[in-house]
Structure formats: C-alpha cells, structure tokens
Amino acid sequence: MSVLGCIEAGGTKFVCGVGSGPEDLKLAWFPTSSPEATVESVSAFFGNHALDAVGIGSFGPVDLHPESPTFGYITSTPKLEWQFFDLAGAIRRSLGVPVGIDTDVNAAALGEARWGAARGVTDFIYLTIGTGIGGGAVVHGKLVHGLLHPEMGHIRIPHDLAKDPYPGGCPYHTDCLEGLASGPALEARWGMPAQQLPPDHPGWVLEAHYLALGLVSWVCTLSPRRIVMGGGVMQQPHLLPMVRRELLALLNGYIRVSGLIDNIDQYVVPPQLGNRSGVLGALVLAERAHRNADPRTATAPAGENL
Amino acid sequence: MSVLGCIEAGGTKFVCGVGSGPEDLKLAWFPTSSPEATVESVSAFFGNHALDAVGIGSFGPVDLHPESPTFGYITSTPKLEWQFFDLAGAIRRSLGVPVGIDTDVNAAALGEARWGAARGVTDFIYLTIGTGIGGGAVVHGKLVHGLLHPEMGHIRIPHDLAKDPYPGGCPYHTDCLEGLASGPALEARWGMPAQQLPPDHPGWVLEAHYLALGLVSWVCTLSPRRIVMGGGVMQQPHLLPMVRRELLALLNGYIRVSGLIDNIDQYVVPPQLGNRSGVLGALVLAERAHRNADPRTATAPAGENL
Q: Which of B105, B145, B156 would best serve as a mutation to test chain A binding (most A beta carbons within 10 A)?
C-alpha cells in the first residue's frame, strides 16, 4: 500500500493531507507566506510520513506542459513573491518523491469525479465561486488543458450599468464574470460580505443572473453533462436554485435536451466533497505521479482518464 | 481502395462529394427542399457510385448519441419540415452503406485537422461566422460532444445599446453572439449585406469587437492552441486582423502564453480548405463509418482521434 500526500495550494493557505480518500484523510494547513517558508512548513508536515508521491492542486496560472522548461512553475500570478516559483520542483526536491501538479480547480474536478458529484460523468465542469471564479473541465473523461489551462472566471458577460452601477473589480478586465460575481465583487457592491446579505436581498438575484450567464457560455461551448458549483459564495443554500432557474430562463428552450431541461436539479449540483474537493483531487494527482514514476505499475497509459 | 461519399447538409443546400481528399473530390450540390426530395436528389447523385460509406456534416441540432433512439436525427431545428427527421437513417436506407454523422462545424473541424489549418493541433476550435455562428471544438485530439454538442454562437456577450442600438436578431436569445454578429445581423443593422460594407465602415470595428468577445470566452474556457475562423462574414480580408488585435486588447495581457501573445497571426487563422472544410470533414466521417463497420479494419478503437 502506497502512502500518498496531497496539497491544495491556495493564495491564502496551503491545505496538506495524507491518506487514501474521503474516509481516510489526515489534514493540516499553513498560511501562504513566502514561497520558501511555505514549502518549509509543508515539508515539515510531510516529513513525518514515508510518502511515495505528492499531488498538488495549485492557484495559477501554472505551467502544466511537461516538455516546458518551467513545467510545474506558478507563472504570471499577481502575487509577486510567487511569480515564476518552481512549486512542483521545490516540493519534489524537498521530499524526494514524484510530484503531480495541476490547477486547484482541475484538482477539484478530479476529486468530484472520483468520489463526489461527478462520479461516472465523462463530460462535466467544476466551478468555484469564491475569492475568485475558476473552473475545471473534463471532456471525454480527461481534464482540458490546451495551451495553458482554462481561466473560466475571465469570460465577458453582459453588464447593464443602469441596473448594476458597480463597475467590476477585475484588475485585468474590470467587469468580466469574476469581476462582477466573485465574493469580493459582492462585498464591494453591497458594502458587506456575501454571507451577511439576507436571502431575499436583490443582490442574490443579480448574482444568480451573472452566474447563469457564465453557465450559458459553458453549456453552449462544452455541452457538459453536469455542472458542479462549489466555493464560498455557493455556500448560501438559496443561491443554487436561483442559478438553475435563471439558466433555464436564459437558454429559453434552445438546448432541448432532457438531461438539462427535465433534470436541472441533477444538472447543476453542489459538490459532494464540501471544501475538500481540491485536496482530495490532489490525492488523485499523487496517485498518477506514483503510478507513472513506478515502472512496475506504469503499465496504464500515462493518461488522465478519470 | 474504398469509395467514400460525403455530404455537407446545410439549411439552404446539400453539398455532396465523392473522393479521397482535397486533390480528389468530385462535388455536386442540391437545394435543401423537403427532407424526402432532398434525400432523393442526394441518393440519385451517389447512386452512380459504388460507395462503401457516407459521412454527413449536418445543420443541427443533431442527435449524436449512438445509444439514443433518435441517433442521427435532426432534432429541434426551426426548419419545421426537418424537425426530428432521421437524416442518417434515410441516407443509410437509401444507399445501403454505413453512415457517419456529426454537426457541420464538427465536420469542418475534422476537415481542417486532417488537411487544413489545424493539422497536428490536438486542441483547437473551428468557427464559422455566416448565416449563423457555430463552432466545433477538439480537445486532446477528439471532438467535443457532451450532452448535445456545442452551440457556440449562442453565448451571451456584452452589448452596449448606446453604442449599438440594433437589438439583436436571435429568435431565442435576441442579442447572443449570433444575434449580434452573424451575417443577417450585420445586414439588419446596417441595411446592406456584409460584403457591401466598405472596409473602413465602423460596422467592422463593432463586428471585430463582438467576435473577439466570443473568442475571449472560448480562450478562457477551452484554452485552444489555435482558432480557425471561417464562414461567409470572414471572407472580408480586413476583418481577421481586426479580430486578432481586439482579442489581445480584451485579454489585456492576462493569458501570458507565448503561443498566443507572440504568435497571434498563427493563433487566430483562416481555414485552409476554403468553403470545403465541412464537406471534406464529412469524408473523414465516412472513413470512420467504413472502418468501424468493416470488421477487417475495425481494429482501431471506435474512436475519434484525429
């Protein structure tokens, strides 16, 4: 039995775990400080375990192309200290084990695919609506990477300034989806954190509208079989039903597929792993790193099928 | 040597071909009338050839799930006569050969992947901007299908009514991308067909802006390695450079990947097969139908790898 470690590397904290799945997972976390100090804390935690491999789901952007000289680096993040930091390399050198890495949302998608709300679903997206907005997409059972990796929060959506004078908070795009509908955008617009807005506050109608506009884009582009919506903002239980209704209203009967229009409650769903989707997905990345690094078990294609 | 037929089934005409590739393709076309009369014309054309298989790239929506009872049907099209017409079945019964079917834009993506602008590219999108706006996506070398198939033209984009009072022409969504930027939308907004607008007409600035807003969505969602833009509206040679510039302006340096920012002229490109991308892609579908139907050659997985 191999011993696997997992890391959800976030902008404010690093969640680390050792285990084999949702029922067997020992967690610890460390605040995200300088890259060196953070890697040191993480390594100290893992140092007590005889790990076989580690998986990392990281904030981004991350270079995910194995043939690239900066593979495993965090690249052009606005967090200056972390720009072009070789996260995967630092962890690998510190622990001396194979390391798998992907984005935090791709890892969360893997976690939900293995143990959660997307089990058995070959084509789906996982979204997080929180400090930022991000998404991981699975197509034909594999994570979408492409040129970089998806940056779903930065799609542009309609923004009626007469109805919503808040200009948007994205430093790059002002009123992209993340700029209009992330947690900080809600707080900046209404003057209080999302969790303090009462359920009947008009802010939720607007939030459901913006999120549903995003879903329209992804439904029309990827035609997913399921959409999993996690993240801090989605913790408000009244929000998900509003998003479902608004998605149907915006599609207006154009996508006439039973899996969507007759089953919206099973089509747009919450995660089943709570806030552990990402760190558990990192465990799947660790598994893969272990399998691919070990010639005795690397008989499966070096693939990413779920 | 097998004899393969191909059909690009459009809303106004059916283009039919027999051959093996761009250098060997005999074409004919028939106006799209009633389903029965159209299939009869098509069958008469193919009847002179001893076909082994036929591929169809069809207007949609099309049911592409082999396990579905309406597999190969055109489903909820606004063309009433064609609603729930078993196009693949009618062709198969009439010609007595295996039939492969996909959407017109997915077929065009296959054609450009095999012989055109996307050769060797595992992750790309093919777009057509014409009577409608549609797109086919290839991820990890396979076409994206999912729950239905992409309907990329129907994503929502920002629409500033003060700058562009044209309300949009989509019967389902009014001012989705197709409603704002298709050929008919251009004509309705400016009172003349797109090809009559002079190159310095402000309509082109607006058109490039709308199309680039669409590209932003797809870049952020699929992270393609290339974008191929075809269709009648893209025939204006000044438009593509404007779209490239506007895409970079809208992304505003956020996606800092050399393949995009340093190589935009190779990133957003015209098709290389002119208006034959779709019908040539249908030839690839015919090949697959032939291979999968013939046990002697069906050793390759029933797959869709390019």
A: B156
| 10-residue mean pLDDT series, chain B (306 residues) | 94 96 97 97 93 96 93 91 96 96 98 98 97 96 96 98 97 97 98 96 98 98 98 96 98 91 97 97 97 59 49
Say if CB A177 and CB A157 are below 8 A apart: yes
Whole-angstrom distance, CA of residue B305 vs CA of residue B293: 17
Residue of B nearest to A126 (CA): B221
ipTM: 0.95
10 Å CB burial of residue B119 (0-12, 13-18, 19+) is exposed
Mean pLDDT of A89-104: 97
Beta bridge partners of A17: A6, A27
- pTM of the entire structure? 0.95
Q: Which residues of B touch A260 (CB under 8 A)?
A: 147
If you count DSSP H runs as helices and E runs as strands, how many of each does chain A have, helices first?
A: 10, 10
Question: Given the DSSP bridges, would you call strands A24-31 and A13-21 parallel, antiparallel or unpaired?
Answer: antiparallel
Q: How far apart are CA A189 and CA A169, in angstroms?
A: 9
Cβ of residue B215 closer than 8 Å to a chain A Cβ:
no
How confident is the prediction for chain A on average, in pLDDT? 94
The reply to whether A84 touches chain B by the CB within 8 Å rule is: no
Tell me phi and psi for residue A7, to 5 degrees. -135, 125
* Residues A220, B259: C-beta atoms closer than 8 Å: no
CA distance A113 to chain B (A): 15
